[in-house]
Design brief:
Length: 583
């Protein structure tokens, strides 16, 4: 991985995680005035062993080994439950035997190496529904699904006929709850719609890993007792294709969460029970009377949440969340259920925030955040969203400045890392973004970016979503909600400066190692105070690293000396270089 550190004057990059040690390289340092103000943090050399092979698919906060500790009610055991610090693993998660570099995008949408995700249960259980099938040394993904036996493209074609807004840039962001192997989200990429495919770690074995292995955005998650890690009014569309979420149970609390994260004017699409119950009920092991009752309950609940039935055909029903806030006036009446959420519950609070049986009413001061008032894609990417005014110091000029800064940075990164912008890098994570600047600058490259905003930082994630990008809240003191080996490039900018008082650097870097693919990269822009310590830990994880100037420096950097096994490193005045994570 490009393990990159970049101080505010310089930067370090470690390129391509390597399981081989590299030789020490002499450092030639000319300390800057800023560096001389405080001695850099120094730590002792450390070396991390590999975890045992049974940890090859280790997801620390959704670990099936720990499920028995938690309750079955509403499937709470599948939510995030991170291990206490004394149970944290200090080892490097190994790849499965026979692991290969993933197939490159866009070919990867339809196939992946079997040995990279060697799970047979889902293949045996779902091959008749054409989710996937094993053929030789690959899994093939024909685009089938429970509710789209004719293929996902035909299914989405029908959906576009029902929702013309999917064709003209009105709809840009979507969430697929209970996503299967993310066939729906994968198909929408070619239609200009960016989807977060969401599924828990359950008996379906690695649905999210299948998605990410193929280059499709996805994250582990479940609607259970806590809010999903997204701000209010994030998505233009939400989708459930026989996702088996009991929408009308528990007072409709799951649908209340969809209402919260769906933009006013946005669409909720349901295919599967109880839609089209008149013709489908026999295959659902139920009676037509029961399905009719369920559908009527669902329609009543949606009406109470200010949704209207927008369109319906065959197995697909579409509801639209109303943009007119006057619909919510009735929620103030006595004995109304569900009622309005009171002011004590922040609409965007979404990190370990319990679900509540109340309606989050859209803020009436936001006049231009509904689907019919926000600019269409791609114009919305560079138009300052209305909600940027909620950010301290946020403004149209601040966004324009940020965009200009990231265009310059990306140009510089591509000089340092020629793989960036090619099919060698597909899944990218910006670990502590502000406005999604890296994602915006790289919008024309064959990659997608998961924009992460710290749960302890200023809440800028609504701005990211209003621009037509995707992301999530996260606390880097804990493991991220993904499988091992799911990202090609990690980028962070001052994360340790901001969070080191809370999060131990060693565990953050070990988590980065877990989620990075072999031969993946990390770019770390950081204060010079932390650079040596990060380099020491990175070496203990068998990463190769080098320092480089940032885009603001003008130093000439000679070609780095080549070391053994293809890794290389070079150290220059306050800046360092690039190395490798190989199998």
């Amino acid at each position: 991985m490009l393990c990159g550190f970049s101080f505010y004057l310089g930067g370090i990059f470690c390129s391509e995680k390597t399981r081989f040690e590299t030789n020490d390289v002499k450092q030639i340092a000319v300390p800057s005035a800023k560096e001389s103000m405080a001695a850099p943090l120094q730590i002792k050399a450390v070396s991390f062993p590999e975890c045992s092979p049974d940890y090859q698919d280790y997801t620390p906060c959704t670990d099936p080994r720990r499920w028995r500790k938690y309750g079955l009610h509403r499937l709470t055991f599948m939510e995030r439950h991170c291990p206490p610090i004394f149970e944290r693993k200090e080892c490097l998660v190994p790849p499965p035997d026979g692991y290969k570099s993933p197939i490159k995008w866009p070919n990867s949408r339809d196939k992946c190496w079997y040995r990279n995700v060697p799970y047979d249960w889902i293949n045996k259980q779902k091959s008749n529904q054409h989710w996937l099938r094993k053929e030789g040394d690959k899994f093939l993904f024909p685009g089938g699904g429970t509710m789209f036996p004719n293929g996902v493209s035909a299914y989405v074609d029908l959906m576009q006929d029902l929702i013309p807004e999917m064709k003209d840039g009105t709809i840009r962001t979507a969430i697929d709850t209970g996503c299967g192997v993310a066939s729906w989200g994968g198909d929408l990429l070619d239609r200009g719609i960016l989807t977060v495919s969401l599924a828990p770690r359950d008996n379906h074995e690695a649905q999210v890993q299948f998605a990410l292995e193929r280059g499709i955005p996805a994250i582990l998650g479940i609607i259970s007792t806590q809010r999903l890690p997204f701000p209010s009014k994030s998505f233009d569309m939400a989708h459930c294709s026989r996702c088996l979420i009991p929408w009308t149970e528990f007072g409709g609390i799951y649908l209340l969460e969809i209402h919260r994260i769906l933009r006013p004017g946005g669409f909720w699409v349901l295919s599967g029970p109880p839609v089209n119950y008149e013709h489908r009920w026999r295959g659902w092991n139920t009676t037509i009377e029961e399905q009719k009752t369920d559908y009527e309950k669902l329609q009543t609940l949606l009406t109470s949440l200010c949704f209207k039935l927008y369109n319906k055909k065959d197995d697909i029903a579409v509801w639209q969340k109303l943009s007119d806030n006057s619909c919510y006036d009735k929620l103030s009446e006595p004995d109304t259920y569900p009622g309005k959420c009171d002011d004590s519950l922040e609409p965007d609070s979404a990190w370990y925030t319990p679900l509540r049986s109340c309606v989050v009413v859209p803020n009436p001061k936001h006049k231009r955040s509904s689907l019919d008032t926000i600019p269409k894609w791609p114009e919305r990417l560079h138009v300052a969203p209305e909600r940027i005014s909620d950010v301290h110091g946020g403004s149209a000029s601040a966004l324009k400045h940020d965009d200009g800064k990231w265009k310059k940075r990306l140009q510089h990164y591509k000089k340092l890392l020629p793989a960036l912008g090619t099919d060698k890098i597909r899944n990218v994570m910006d670990m502590n973004t502000v406005y999604g600047g890296l994602a915006a600058a790289s919008i024309d490259d064959p990659l997608w970016v998961m924009n992460v905003v710290s749960s302890y930082a200023t809440n800028t994630l609504p701005v990211v979503y209003d621009r037509g990008l995707i992301g999530t809240f996260h606390d880097w003191c804990e493991a991220f909600s993904t499988y091992p080996r799911t990202y090609d490039l990690l980028h962070l900018d001052g994360l340790f400066t901001a969070e080191s008082h809370r999060c131990e650097m060693k565990y953050v870097l070990l988590e980065m190692d877990r989620i990075l693919r072999p031969n993946g990269y990390a770019i770390i822009r950081e204060s010079s105070y932390f650079v040596d310590a990060v380099a020491t830990i990175a070496k203990g994880m068998r990463w190769g690293c080098r320092k480089e100037d940032t885009e603001y420096e003008t130093l000439d950097i000679p070609s780095p000396p080549v070391l053994g096994d293809g890794g290389y490193a070079a150290w220059l005045s306050g800046c360092a270089g690039i190395g490798t994570k190989e199998l």
